[in-house]
Amino acid sequence: MGHGGNVIHELTVDHREVEEMFDRFNALPPGHPGRRDIADEFTIELVRHSVAEEIHLYPAVRQHVIGGDQLADREIADHAKAEQLLKKLEGLDIHQAEFDTTAAQLITEVTAHVADEEQNLFPALAAACTGPELDELGEKVRSAKDKAPTRPHPSASDTPPLNKILAPGAGLVDRARDLLSGRGRR
Fold it and tell me: pTM of the entire structure?
């Protein structure tokens, strides 16, 4: 992650990368050990992406877009559902049938969320903000992703100001755990 450009380009590229991970996941048969590695990979990316959106994108939507509060609230609710599923998936063994059904639920939720953002939120934000504002927001999102947690924390705050304060600390702990365990490396 960290592609450059304005916020819409940055987040759209993230979406395509996660979709590619979902495709690789679905190409493997149930019970294949590679499914856990890919699930860890998309968990890391989805958590970082979501935290960055919650810290910077959704507050900007609330500020600039007419009806932005309702739009941001809906997107945050989508994130909460996905994070619950990610947390559940994290605790399941790949040989459990529930692993596959939970992963399928997650993929369905995230795919619908991505479509909604790209069809509704991104065009509304693009119409409400200047190019320089979108570029600055892209920089903020990239910076937040670098510090964000890599594991789901469903009980953590998903709205400012608490998420801005707590996310970097959780991110530091998560990255240390990932380094020690080898999680997220292919």
Answer: 0.84
